Amino acid sequence: MERSPGDDSSPSPRPVEQPSAPSDPPDQPPTAHTKPNPSSGNQPAAPSAAGEALAVLSSFGRRLLVLVPVYLAGAIGLSVGFVLFGLALYLGWRRVRDKKERSLRVARQLLDDEEQLTAKTLYMSHRELPAWVSFPDVEKAEWLNKIVAQVWPFLGQYMEKLLAETVAPAVRGSNTHLQTFTFTRVELGEKPLRILGVKVHTGQSKQQILLDLNISYVGDVQIDVEVKKYFCKAGVKGMQLHGVLRVILEPLIGDLPIVGAVSMFFIRRPTLDINWTGMTNLLDIPGLSSLSDTMIMDSIAAFLVLPNRLLVPLVPDLQDVAQLRSPLPRGIIRIHLLAARQLSSKDKYVKGLIEGKSDPYALVRVGTQTFCSRVINEELNPQWGETYEVIVHEVPGQEIEVEVFDKDPDKDDFLGRMKLDVGKVLQAGVLDDWFPLQGGQGQVHLRLEWLSLLPDAEKLEEVLQWNRGISSRPEPPSAAILAVYLDRAQDLPLKKGNKEPNPMVQLSIQDVTQESKALYSTNCPVWEEAFRFFLQDPRSQELDVQVKDDSRALTLGALTLPLARLLTAPELTLDQWFQLSSSGPNTRLYMKLVMRILYLDSSELRFPAMPDSPGPWDLDNENPQIGSSVDIPPRPCHTTPDSHFGTENVLRIHVLEAQDLIAKDRFLGGLVKGKSDPYVKLKLAGRSFRSRVIREDLNPRWNEVFEVIVTSIPGQELEVEVFDKDLDKDDFLGRCKVSLTTVLNSGFLDEWLTLEDVPSGRLHLRLERLSPRPTAAELEELRKGTKPPSPYATLTVGDATHKTKTVTQTSAPIWDETASFLIRKPNSESLELQVRGEGTGALGSLSLPLSELLVADRLCLDRWFTLNNGQGQVLLRAQLGILVSQHSGVEAHSHSYSHSSSSLSEELELWGGLPHITSSAPELRQRLTHGDSPVEAPAGPLGQVKLTVWYYSEERKLVSIVHSCRALRQNGRDPPDPYVSLLLLPDKNRGTKRKTSQKKRTLNPEFNERFEWELPLDEALRRKLDISVKSNSSFMSRERELLGKVQLDLAEIDLSQGAAQWYDLMDDKDKGSS
């Protein structure tokens, strides 16, 4: 006997007979047997008075807490605007919060209703499905949902173990501030993941099984985390996730478990909605809410959205794991976004009374790849003419999506979208059509080309020839694609202090750079990541690999690989270890590089007939009818161009260098200031040019040349912009404009241009006007290379360089210029001379060892020198001079031993204006022998310090120069951070104390610092100079470690000579001098 619904509401319970074996009526869904309520027969106990009082006090306290910000604002003296702003912020947060909770409740209700409807409509008992029942390609899998529901609690246990034992230690090790990070609660809740539909793709490959799972998760998951050190708690309570998950079972093998591995990924980004708790409640503030969800979706996309995938091997020693984890793309689609027509008008004026047009632009998406076209102002039939290349990883599944918007200052208006499965492009090969826009009016014109990936280097020349005839912007068409699988590294060098690095990898081809993830505290990292690059011409391009610490400041190793090497490799593939330069002897990097040629099957394409082929316009073969009454116009013999034909000029733009650019790179969250990676953009006459990127340099040198055809139309300007290359968005470094009127009139402009809209920076440009001359003699002269060059010379000694002026078009230039250099070691340095032609390259070079000047008469050479690597000679005078100070004969040991001057084509009296310069050869040779002689007294056990001490009588000062230290003692594992402290005894106050700067981690520091004390000579002779070499113990401690010291009795030193001398350092108890 069953209970009626009314029995539950009766005031007194009635006994109910329970059947011994409950059964459901036929053809009905099974009823849910609820647990009996043990208190159903008793009246609920009334709440106690204490509980009611506590609830009232709690409610009153919460409302009183709202007034605390108002009180604090008044106490501090803030205006009411701060209170209103805080109130608006709270109301916005509350609105977002309520919207998320409401969405979560509605989604749960929909799922519950769907479960009940499915149970009522699909349940059939005691009979088979009729033969005429058929299912669509997307099938419901309720049996799979029942399995997931059964497994869900155990999956929660696994997730708790995974987060506590794997994720939490990784988070704690990533940052010192997160060492107390822990998961305090991990519950997946009672609402399991639901699979709304399953689609099986057949006929793709016999080696794999392809499944698409339409998943929906509206769960009551609760995950709480805590950082105990900062009393910070945060978490998630409730989440929605909807998307299509592709599962690939491959390879199929002839042994258990039949399937070798399982790959999972989302074809498109899933939708996500998270309900935050704790400190992360702040993420529900308007503006931060969408930002936080976007950041989390980016993290998911980097892990589980194409081209990324999760691979779970099911058998040990699985072959080609790299191929399964990062397979080669199925193909490349070249998308030509040509035009659109009949778009809707969105711009309104005068409050809608006047209808304008639209400013359309298009967004092109394929998976995570997104491209944005330029904006066409005031046009309903825009012509874009842009080309994009996208990687296709999965067919079927991925779609080409084009959305058209109207650009507005506030929010862009939607004009329509179209979607197309990439499988249709694969079938057609080339698809050129107008596609209607959904959600709006109008059509968009696309030309879609499927490019196959061929491992055939012989096809490269054909592809390059084809690409030369393609007009493509904003980027030139690609000829190949390079897939790099970064596996692991071995024996990376340690950081300072023998600490293990946090390695990451930067891979660059020209100005495109991609970065790997950073792995913490390891010198043998395993990345297992894949990267893909488009190549315009692999014969001349290189792959640059930089292994760095995650701060990007320390380079652990480098590799430069010419891509032409792949063209000769089997299957265009290299799978091996690569030795890293600028690193340890055993430092290696394992990578797999695969190149594929992008080939368009043009067998079915139709092209216009060539001019030499017969056609309808071949008038020589036509047979006009005799006696025709139609007057045929005479055939012209010449063209009739306008008067401006052939008067165009060519502007040659030399982008030379820049100086004092601003630094945009920041590391460690902005704490460490880096440099910039600058490049230059040029815009003129509707064309754009871009220089190469110079890495980490605020004074870059490009020396690049660009040419553009210009007309004499007044008002034209060359727009120049400098940017810092970044991974996401390039930073602006300045701009400048050059009017072409001056260049077209004068024919030449060479100037430093100040960059605008930035605090500092300037750019060196050289502009030339080249006027075409229609004479065969000029062409023949250029062809033979007999046209005289425009030479200039550069002289270099060490790091110093001097560049002469450029002499126009002559093979016998006369420069008449002089350059002077400071020389430290003349017996080992050399003068390097390079003669180059403007636009023609190197003409010759000369390397003159300065040691030849030491044996020359009066340390001077003045004669013709023959140039190497070229023809011709150069007349050069080079002379050495010794530098001696006027003050008590003190020699400048710290910076330069001698002075060199070289003069091209002129003998110049150089020494008249200098204070005291002599060119005595014996004196210079004696000084060089003394200064560079390796035979010196051995250093003591604590090391030595080099000092110069003398008395300057004219200014009544005692002067000391601390030059350097050598062979200092190392007490710990790391080298010391030495500095020198000087004290004039017997005074020990700060008035007589001097201190050098501190040098980092060295046993042989060089200081070259000068110190002075004002006192009479008789008093100086009664003093002692105490010199102590010390090192900082630690960053946070004020203690100083004494490395050694020495005391000099000034009465025993000849203060009039001032010679530099090495002194042995002693312990504190044994203070003496040597």
From TrEMBL:
Alphabetically ordered keywords of this record: Calcium, Cell membrane, Endoplasmic reticulum, Lipid transport, Lipid-binding, Membrane, Metal-binding, Repeat, Transmembrane, Transmembrane helix, Transport
Membrane topology: Peripheral membrane protein; Multi-pass membrane protein
Organism this protein belongs to: Equus przewalskii
Gene: ESYT1
Ranges of Pro residues composition bias in the record: 12-29
Protein name stated in the entry: Extended synaptotagmin-1 isoform X2
Record keyword Membrane present: yes
InterPro entries: C2_dom, C2_domain_sf, C2C_KIAA1228, Ext_Synaptotagmin_C2A, Ext_Synaptotagmin_C2B, Extended_Synaptotagmin, SMP_LBD, Synaptotagmin_SMP
Region span, Disordered: 1-47
Entry's transmembrane regions: 70-93, 247-267
Family stated for the protein in its record: Belongs to the extended synaptotagmin family.
